[in-house]
Amino acid sequence: MRSKxxxxxxxxxxFARVTITRHFQDDSAVEVVGTARDGLDAIExxxxxxxxxxxxxxxxxxxxxxxxxxxxxxxxxxxVLMFSSLTSExxxxxxxxxxxGAVDFLCKPSRAAAxxxxxxxxxxxxxxxxxxxxxxxxxxxxxxxAIAPPPPHxxxxxxxxxxxxxxxTGGPKALQALIPALxxxxxxxxxxVQHMPPGFTKSMAQRLDTESRIRVKEAxxxxxxxxxxxxxxxxxxxxxxxxxGCIRLNQEAPQCGVRPSIDVTMESAARFDGxxxxxxxLTGMGADGTxxxxxxxxxxxxxxxxxxETCIVYGMPRSVVCAGHADLVVPLNLIAGCLISxxx
Length: 344
What we know:
The protein is α/β, with parallel strands linked by helices. It has 12 helices and 14 strands. The protein has helices at residues 14-22, 39-49, 65-75, 88-100, 113-116, 119-132, 171-178, 201-211, 262-273, 290-298, 316-322, 332-342; strands spanning 5-10, 30-36, 53-56, 80-84, 104-107, 162-167, 190-194, 215-218, 229-232, 238-241, 247-250, 277-281, 302-306, 328-330.
């Protein structure tokens, strides 16, 4: 019988610590083994209590959550879920935390919302269970900045005019390694679909743009797909492509339980110019991207899946591979080289 998941809750608010602990009272699989009031306290309790998962606030006295996260990942790698506030400062800090090594985040409820949002307890418990199941050896996978050459086999049979990249859990860290390795003269546009709620994709796009040679921006409705640019799907919006090659945003029903959905964008890309599309599926839970990758392949396009060895969560890529849709399965550090070799 599997032992209980040991959870450490770190927040300077006593109300938050009590609230989070209460949400696990009826979960027989999780035990809150301790709480901490700041980052320094958190680091010591991670070392002594050896939790399976850490819930970590960002804004705290003595040592903030970002600093504590860096220390935890360096000294005692542990799956960390961040609490994020719904502010521009909070979203930027959250994106930085995901780049450093946090596996996911939750929007921190206000004192009133903690009891008024029905979905929060279920989301919290689901993410703690997800984090506890991760292979901790992958948490410290280095951020590959060097462009490795693509493998000698496996290339699209026709000229590439569009790339669609899909990712979920672990995606921000993977994108932070992949996108800055792309040149500003890439001969095709790149559409990125990262599962993320509203308010966070703009911060992610801005951070990637600052660190990259290629231009990165949050996608806007009606703008044309332009070569040498990366477009990030906005949180809570599906991204499709019009017949004239312009980006279209919509809030139609979620697919695979998510919006934006990788399947929606890849299906649209397959219809638009599937024979000249490369679909890339990176780390993430679930199966979003599998149906879309199949449609890209069916239309004559090319599909790349990230290899298990560099995935934080080998869920979505595994689904693509098991469905027989992957033309190439490679580690993260080879993917930029593949895309560059298809440019021209």
